[in-house]
Structure formats: C-alpha cells, structure tokens
C-alpha cells in the first residue's frame, strides 16, 4: 500500500466528500445563463472594493484623483480575474492528471464536480476580462524544471505541493470574493460573479483543507527528514507571499496611466499598511497552516 | 542614466544576498539565482527596463538563462550594450 493510498483512504474523508458531492449536484447551476452581462460597466464608480486595491491605506492612495482610483480599480479587477484564469488552468491540469490515479480513488467522484465547476469559473472570469477589459493579462510564469522540497521527483511531495498550492490560491481568492459579493456599492454583475464563485469555492476549500492535512501527515510519517520538511515549509511560505504580490501588477498601473509601475510596486510592497492588509487576507491560510503544523517554526 | 543591466544585476543581488559578482555566462536557473517563484517578478522587472510586455508563454527558457543571453535577447543596442557603437 502506497503512502498516498493510506493517506486519503479514511472514513472521515470519504464521508466529507460524499456530502460535498451531493451538495455540488444539488446546487448545480447553468453558468452560461446565470449572469447578466451588460455591454459595459459604469466607469464612474469602483469595480473593486476600495480596501482591496493595491494602494489602499498608503500615502500614495491619497495622491490619486477619484478618476485615477476608478481606472485603477478597473484594471486591478481585470488582473484579479486574469490571475484566476491562469490559476484555474494550472489546477485543472494537475487535478486532471490525478483524478483516476491509484491512491486518489476516494477523491475521484468529487474531483469530477471540482473539474466541471472550475472549468465554468474559468469561463466566467475570462468572459469578464475580455468583455470589460478587452484582454486577459498574460501569465508571467514559466516552468523552470527546478525540484522543490528536497523530495526530488517523489510523487508524495509533488501531490502535497499541488494541493497545498491550490488551497492557498483558493483561500486568497475567496477573501476577495466574499468582500466584493457583500459590497453593495459594486455593479450587480461584479457582485454576482464573486458571490457564485465563493459558493462553489467553499466546497473546494473544505475538501482541499482535508486533503492537504492528510498528505502532510503522510509526509511527516514517511522517511522525510526534518530538513526536507523545513524546505517544504519555506517553499509554501514564499509561495503564499508571491501569490499576494501578484496583485501588484505594473501593467495595471500603466493601464491606469500611473507611471513607473515596477518602482511603485516595490514601494507599495514595502509599505507597512500593505503588510497589514496582507496579514488580513492571509489570516485564514496562516491559521490553517499553523494549526496543521505545516508552518510550525516559521 | 544607469544601464538597464545594472537594474537586473541589482535585483539579483537583492534576491541573493552574499552571492557577489555574477559572471555573464553563469546559469541563473541552474544556480537558483532565479527560481520559479521569483521568475514572475523578474519578468516584471525586465518589462520595466525594456518598456514592453513580454509574451513569456511563447518564449524559451534559454532566452533568460544567463545575463549575457538576457542582454542579447532583450536589451540590444542599449547604452554600453553589445550593439552599441
């Protein structure tokens, strides 16, 4: 019996996934008919909640006119949905690779719901970008072929990292979704896209949390050394930081007619107000990582 | 005005404290001076110094592998660059 088979074959996970699969089937909707897509969205108001903007709370925010903030909110919302498009594409590739692989039997049924829903999310996020921004911001990532986590090509390490990255990505996005779904100042289409995504993601996050914890326990109980586990911890800590930093896209500043976007990004990232904002966004993620011991000692 | 390669060298030095002078032909990926998590910010910097967007998805890793390759592929003709007369 492989490490993975032992890890995921628990009565508690099976019961959780059965429940989530039933709920996914019961809540199923036709995404292609769910939303109103007006020809345009009003440009005399924000497209993102003000506290989600990358300049929020900094001295730089006060130097921008109302029109500049509106423009920035348009491009930062297109960036947010673009990040979703790229993130979903990567997670679909990884989950599809695993759906009927030995060891993933307990999760296969739920993964079918997950893959179907994620494909639909990618569709409505891409549609938003193309309809209202005229583009999807390009993905700047490239596979460098570097091994991570001291595990070489160890599939147990690769499986853990895939699901940990998916969970962190979904939790960060969910913070934005919940805030915008509840923000009555935003256009109805923006609120609806965020609300519907949050509803589906709550199931994905519930499933992902359990899978990540079980895969981590399996690694702890395997022959991995303390140094190898620490390397995984350090990687995930950096992954989390990098994920947040993707919200500071110099292309958004340029499109909002704000000069020197890269320098502005560096200044904003160093601003104490932004560090505090990151702590709020990452609160749930860090609580989970600490509770499970994944970030212990860091 | 600083040469664009100086900005790239400064960024690499900041991300890799204690590494010292990086030879033009040193493999930045192999030596982990740029890793997958740092790569996206590196591209943002490169876009900033070149003044144009880079379609990373259509590019080869070899174009970014050394400082010499970066200068040749993205900054030809810049002051003090390889094509300067």
UniProtKB/TrEMBL annotation, chain A:
SUPFAM superfamilies: Ferritin-like. It comes from the Bacteria. It holds the Pfam family AurF. This is Diiron oxygenase. It comes from Streptomyces nondiastaticus.
